[in-house]
From TrEMBL:
Family: Belongs to the Glu/Leu/Phe/Val dehydrogenases family.
Keyword flag Oxidoreductase: yes
Record-linked Gene3D superfamilies: Leucine Dehydrogenase, chain A, domain 1, NAD(P)-binding Rossmann-like Domain
Domain of life (superkingdom): Bacteria
Organism: Flavobacterium paronense
SUPFAM superfamilies linked to this entry: Aminoacid dehydrogenase-like, N-terminal domain, NAD(P)-binding Rossmann-fold domains
Keyword field contains Acyltransferase: no
Domain Glutamate/phenylalanine/leucine/valine/L-tryptophan dehydrogenase C-terminal residue range list: 181-408
Protein name stated in the entry: Glu/Leu/Phe/Val dehydrogenase dimerization domain-containing protein
Keywords on record: Oxidoreductase
Length: 408
């Protein structure tokens, strides 16, 4: 696995597109690791301090993710070094998509990512540039459909991603009109935990969990975990967090979800960040879902979790560990050798899979069909890892080996 990984990491990306905004200090990159299958896909993120290396590592991560979620295409990513809270953000994104639109028409598909919203930014801004859909390049480069077929499938994709969830089993509140895009990644993170216990042994009900990050992914993961009977005992977010060692009820988690301020946790008796960051890692959780930004989780935090009975980690964030390596850094490797670590490219493949699902020929557009498709994809990936290595340790190393054999 290590040799395959080194080969994959060291391979120079096929395309690096660099853009400097004429009107602000913003700088952006699209990195296309490969045009495997004639196309590449990966979302657009924005944050201050982002650099090309971050985009490159995420492009490689996407390629591994597509080996699980489909379609069989190359990995890519776009990143813009700019403060997302700057009032000039809209103009920066509009100019960025105009610059990158020839790629989006030909062989690159994108979507929302950190600080860039799929529905309110990516779709309308790419449409302004004459791109039918942010995934149009994947259709043209990989699927090569007839014009009629392309129109049908893009229609399916457009409708599907912004589809309002009607089934109360999948939505915290059907009246608030949460969409598939709002909930699907967190759903996958929770389903990965459920399938893990089913495949590797144990009952998920009554297990204790800590959730890191309460944005789209973390809050949805908490909602679905609580729904399946997991006791959420702690949530840590950017500005602080909450603890209840007995575990919050499903109704309490649901109201925390509904009371979010955008991507921020809002709760009474919020514990300041410094204090909760000292306390939360030793609470005695069975399950940990890192769903905040990349490269935040330290060795010390993991050691504390493991020493207090941790059983499984389901990654909501891409590359959650504070390693400098693109993939399998020392913290991740050590964690994988001590507990069950479900890698990000399996547990958070929800959105990538949604795109792949809607790109197929006529599919069912019901909530049940869409959510159960994601669940099955994650279950199959975990079963493949279990078939190769039934041990609860080294799940990530095994899953990487399966993925890289398809890519190298």
């Amino acid at each position: 696995m290590k040799e395959l990984l080194k080969k994959f990491e060291d391979k120079t990306p096929e395309i690096v597109f660099n853009w400097k905004d004429a009107e602000t200090e913003a700088e952006g990159w699209t990195v296309i690791n490969s045009l495997r299958g004639g196309a590449a896909g990966g979302g657009t993120r924005m944050r201050k301090g982002l650099d090309m290396n971050e985009v490159l590592s995420l492009a490689k991560t996407m390629e591994v993710k597509f080996s699980v979620s489909g379609p069989a295409i190359g990995g890519a990513k776009s990143g813009i070094n700019f403060d997302p809270n700057d009032p000039r953000k809209k103009g920066v994104l509009q100019r960025w998509y105009k610059a990158v639109s020839p790629l989006l028409k030909s062989y690159y598909g994108t979507g929302g990512d950190l600080n860039v919203d799929e529905i309110h930014e990516v779709i309308p801004f790419t449409e302004e540039c004459g791109v039918w859909h942010p995934q149009e390049g994947v259709f043209n480069g990989h699927f090569k459909p007839t014009e009629a077929d392309k129109i049908n499938r893009i229609g399916q994709l457009r409708q599907g991603v912004i589809k309002v969830i009607e089934n109360p089993k999948f939505s915290p509140d059907v009246l608030r009109k949460y969409t598939i895009a709002d909930m699907i990644t967190g759903y996958g993170v929770a389903e990965a935990v459920r399938h893990y216990y089913h495949i590797y042994g144990g009952d998920v009900k009554g297990k204790k969990a800590i959730v890191q990050g309460f944005g789209n992914v973390g809050s949805a993961a908490a909602f679905y975990l609580a729904e399946m009977g997991v006791k959420i005992i702690g949530i840590i977010d950017r500005d602080g967090g909450i603890i209840n060692e007995e575990g919050y009820t499903f109704e309490e988690i649901k109201s925390l979800f509904l009371n979010k301020d955008g991507n921020k946790l809002v709760a009474q008796n919020m514990i300041p960040f410094e204090e909760i960051n000292q306390r939360i890692w030793t609470l005695g959780a069975d399950i940990f879902t890192p769903c905040a930004a990349s490269r935040l989780v330290t060795k010390n935090q993991i050691d504390n979790l493991i020493n207090n009975g941790l059983e499984v980690i389901s990654c909501g964030a891409n590359v959650p560990f504070a390693d400098k390596e693109i993939f399998f850094g020392s913290i991740m490797e050590e964690t994988d050798s001590k507990v069950s670590l479900i890698p990000d490219f399996i547990s958070n493949c929800g959105m990538a899979r949604v795109f792949a699902y809607f790109m197929e020929k006529k599919v069912q557009m019901t909530d049940e069909a869409i959510f159960s498709d994601i669940s099955e994809i994650i279950k199959t990936a975990l079963e493949k890892a279990h078939n190769l290595n039934a041990d609860k340790k080294n799940i990530s190393a095994t899953a990487f080996e399966i993925a890289l054999k398809q890519l190298v």
